[in-house]
Amino acid sequence: MLLIGGVIINVWQRAREASVSRRKLAEFPERLGNWTELGSDQRFDSETEGILRADDYLYRNYTSSDGKAASFYVGYYATQRNGATYHSPLNCLPGAGWTMGTGELVKISPENGKKPFLANRYIIQNGTEKQLMIYWYQGRGRSVSSEYWGKIYTVIDSIRLRRSDGAMVRIAIPVNSSPADASDSAVNLAEAVAAELSAFVPD
């Protein structure tokens, strides 16, 4: 077993990452269902970008036809073999002063009819600011809520497909009236986003 494992690891390390074509995230649709881009895309400072180490990312605000506001972030990694990988909001947000409520899973049904999947849903708070956050991990045709399963699939696909590319997708909406109302809006945007992602985060 040790010998077989050693051979697999050696082959995996020597095999080059498979090339996949994709569109840049800056080209992501400005209009998604009843959501429209609000303002210009935002960029992080160089220190934050150095921590994230994403090969491509998009941080954009959207507004809905009924006046809701939402932030949308997706960080894409062309390869995770070199140690650069997505950062879980559960680790990053508390360091930025946010407290995390109890997590739940929420069903996301992409608007284009793709297979539904489960995403994470949290209420997060920083001082008096409260938001509802939905996030998941996506890549190589999978959308998963668990960071651990995301890592396991990455190892499997690195061997099977010679691919370790993937992304973390996050949507956040202020909780102004009720968490249920914010959740409905966040799910609505997530389902519109999920229908468009495969061109930018390849299946």
Outline the biggest β-sheet: 10 strands, antiparallel
Terminus-to-terminus distance:
32 Å
Strand portion, in percent?
25-35%
What is the assembly state of the chains in this entry? single chain
User: Which structural class is indicated by helix and strand composition?
Assistant: alpha+beta
Known CATH architecture:
3-Layer(aba) Sandwich
Overall pLDDT metric: 89
Helix/strand order, N-terminal first: HEEHEEHEEEEEHEH
Number of strands: 10
Query: How many discrete domains?
Result: 1
The global form is globular
**Helix count from the secondary structure assignment:** 5
User: What do we call the CATH topology?
Assistant: Protein Transport Mog1p, Chain A
What is the CA-based Rg, rounded?
A: 18 Å
Q: Runs with pLDDT <50, length 5+? A: none
Helix content: 25-40%
CATH class descriptor name? Alpha Beta
